[in-house]
Structure formats: C-alpha cells, structure tokens
UniProtKB/TrEMBL annotation:
GO terms assigned for molecular function: RNA binding; RNA methyltransferase activity
Family to which the UniProt record says this protein belongs: Belongs to the class IV-like SAM-binding methyltransferase superfamily. RNA methyltransferase TrmH family.
SMART domains per record: SpoU_sub_bind
Keywords linked to the UniProt accession: Methyltransferase, Transferase
InterPro entries xrefs: Alpha/beta_knot_MTases (IPR029028), Ribosomal_eL30-like_sf (IPR029064), rRNA_MeTrfase_TrmH (IPR004441), SpoU_MeTrfase (IPR001537), SpoU_subst-bd (IPR013123), tRNA_m1G_MTases_N (IPR029026)
Basic and acidic residues bias (residue ranges): 1-32
Protein's UniProt name: RNA methyltransferase, TrmH family, group 3
GO cellular component annotations of the record: cytosol
Length: 282
C-alpha cells in the first residue's frame, strides 16, 4: 500500500506515478494504535468516512489526520484537502481499498479521517451555558444500535436540542458508525455521558425539567403539553424504557398508529417527539 501527503499544487492536481512514496502500512497501523505489546480495543483510534462527516469534524477540531483516495480527485475532495491544510491537519493520499478497511464498509466517498478521542460534554456545563429558558434534552435508555444513536443526534441538532444524554452502562458509546450516520452533528451538539438515570432525572427535575417517556401505554402525543424545560426519554426498540425509568417520568406519551405495524424505529419515534415539542414552542 502506498500513500503520501495530498498535493495541493493548483497547476498539477494529479499524483506523479513515478514519485517515490513512503510506505503507508506503518502510518495506518500507528493510527490503529497497534503495538508489540497490544492495546485494549477501546484505545484504538476511531475512523470516520464520508465528506460531510469529515469536513464537520475537521472544523470542530476533532480530526488527527485525513486520508484521501489517490488518483484523480473532484473539486470537493481537493477543497477538503485544502481545508485540512488550512487547519494544520495532515491530508494523506492512500489507496481506496485502504479507505474501505479503515471505515469498515461505511461509504466513505473517497475520504476518511482518524479522530481524537471523543470528548463527552459535561451536563452541568451544558445547562449553565444554555441560553433558552425551555431547553430540550434527549435521554436514551438502553439504545444500543449506534446508527440509531447517530440518527437521533442528527435530528436533535436540527431540532435545536440542548444535548443528548447517553447512560454509561445502558447505551452504546459514540462510535465511528454513529458519527457517520449523524452527518457531522456530533461536531455541534453536546453529547453527555451520564451515570445513574434515576439520579440524573431527579437532578433535572430539581432544575424545573419535566420528564416525558415514549411508551405504548402513554397518552396521545398530540394531546400532551411539551412546553417548558423537557427531557424526552427514549427506550430500546422492542424493550422500551425500563420500568424504573418509566416510574421516574412525569408522564408518558404514545404515537398514534393507524397501520398494521405496531411500532416505529426508535430514531423515527424520537424525531416525532422532538418536533412536536419544537412545534409547541413555536
């Protein structure tokens, strides 16, 4: 495998096939965090793929290195390489099959990036800096599908939510697949890793928040009052929110179903709840 830094010479965009290139195997392996003694899996570098995801992560200061396919590049890839150079991040050319391996099958569109360890936000700081009087939080109870998490973070950012809360022991951590699905939303929306769900909800209630859970036995979503400081609690598909978490909610709501299928994907359901809350605020 060969790779080199991307040439940004305006007069010569293409790679010189006769140029001596340094071996990329050692560079990529170093990014993976491999060593002779071996490291724990959680210490390995996280890779993302996709132009929007890489660009937004670059602008948020989350990227260590950018890897761009060798050979002919379109204007967007060249612009992305220039943005990396402007921000002081190395942009390295590499073979497309290597991009496939780094992104583990995610559609990378000719670019991947190695990320710095994801920095979770502090919930107390998020609430202190929130300018809205009626902040909206999304708490995920047992949601383990990383693509659902990414989709929910993307919708939450678009809806103007203050943060998404992920329990440390009852949810998947932030992964490359989640970041790819979120299309750059992790660069803008705080994601907080919390401990005990019950204690977190108790503290939020002390600050004036209402907790609403999504549950099949709840009242009609479109008859509920979702104004004011609010925590929307979403459970795992199939299981729903846990009984203890359900008891901590002030009330529960259900989405009216008119077809033969009895439930929605959790990310779709979360989007409906979020935008109903947004509608009522507006």
């Amino acid at each position: 495998m060969n790779n080199r830094r991307v040439s940004l010479d305006k007069k010569e965009r293409k790679c010189d096939p006769h140029e001596k290139r340094r071996s990329g195997d050692q560079s990529i392996r170093g990014e993976r965090g491999f060593s002779s003694g071996g490291r724990r899996k959680e210490e390995e570098t996280c890779f993302i793929g996709g132009r929007n995801s890489v660009l937004e992560s670059l602008r948020a200061g989350q990227v260590k290195k950018v890897f761009i396919k060798s050979g002919k590049k379109d204007g967007r890839l060249l612009a992305l390489a220039e943005e990396a150079e402007r921000l002081g991040v190395a942009a390295i050319e590499t073979e497309e099959r290597t991009l496939d391996r780094l992104t583990e099958g995610v559609r990378h569109q000719g670019v991947a990036a190695s990320l710095k360890p994801y920095a979770y936000a502090d919930l107390e700081e998020v609430l202190s800096s929130c300018e809205r009087k009626d902040p909206l939080l999304i708490l995920l109870d047992g949601v383990e599908d990383v693509r659902n998490i990414g989709a929910i973070v993307r919708t939450a950012e678009c809806a103007g939510a203050a943060a998404v809360l992920l329990p440390k022991h009852r949810s998947s951590p932030v992964t490359a697949a989640a970041m790819k699905t979120a299309s750059g939303a992790f660069a803008y929306l705080p994601v907080c890793q919390i401990g005990n769900i019950r204690q977190t909800l108790e503290k939020l209630k002390e600050r004036g928040f209402w907790a609403v859970g999504a549950d099949m036995d709840g009242g009609d979503l479109y008859q509920a009052d979702l104004k004011g400081p609010l925590v929307i609690v979403m459970g795992a598909e199939g299981k729903g929110i846990s009984p203890l978490t359900k008891r901590m909610c002030d009330f529960c709501v259900r989405i009216p179903m008119r077809g033969k299928v009895s439930s929605l994907n959790v990310s779709v359901a979360a989007a409906l709840l979020m935008y109903e809350a947004v509608r009522q605020r507006n």
